[in-house]
Amino acid sequence: MAYNIVTIAGSLRKDSFSLKIANALAKLAPGSLKLEVITPAGISFFNQDLEAAPPADWLAFRDKLQKSNGVLFVTPEYNRSIPGVLKNAIDVASRPYGKSSLLGKPVGIVSNAPGPLGGVSAAKHLQNILPGISGPLLQQPEIYLNGVGDAFDADGNLTKDSLKTVLQQYLEAFAAHVAKNQG
Fold first, then answer.
1. Whose CB among 53, 112, 116, 154 lies 3.0–4.6 Å from 145's, allowing a Cys bridge?
2. Sequence-ordered list of residues with C-beta below 8 angstroms from that of 85, at least 6 positions apart, any chain
3. How many domains does the chain have?
């Protein structure tokens, strides 16, 4: 049986590095994981006034998370943090209070940047945001992908062998984390 993993690429840009990395992860996933890649596109802004009658997009997103066996965040770094659309998706998923759709779900974080720091600040912000509203975070290995600008061909296929190796190693650790943390 393969565990179903919702893989959230945290950028809306159609050619984003996060989406390319998420798709590469889906292709490289071991047989024990089935990664479904999504983005925060179409998730309306969180507004607590709407909680009594949540919008259909919120309900669909929450349902997708609740039916999963885990969540993998693939985030770029925007201004030393995560993109606002990703934070909004997390806010929508975490409500109503005490009923987070992420609760109990094993979580992994993959940050990336074309520059040398690999989105480490974004990953650290996710590590601050998620405890209390999600399940256990994969602590080791941490993965901050730098220099991703030349890792893909024109069709979005991963061509950088060193990155492929790192992603495969991370997926193996994440698969073990998911298996260990199934209720």
1. 112
2. 10, 11, 12, 40, 41, 43
3. 1
Check if the beta carbon of residue 108 is closer than 8 Å to that of residue 73: yes
Summarised one tens digit per residue, pLDDT across range 141-171 is 999 999 899 999 999 999 999 999 999 999 9
What is the DSSP code string of 113-179? Answer: -SSTTTTHHHHHHHHHHSTTTSSPBP-SS--EE--GGGSB-TTS-B--HHHHHHHHHHHHHHHHHHH
Whether pTM exceeds 0.85: yes
Phi, psi of 147 (to 5 degrees): 60, 35
Count of all residues that appear for the chain in the document: 183
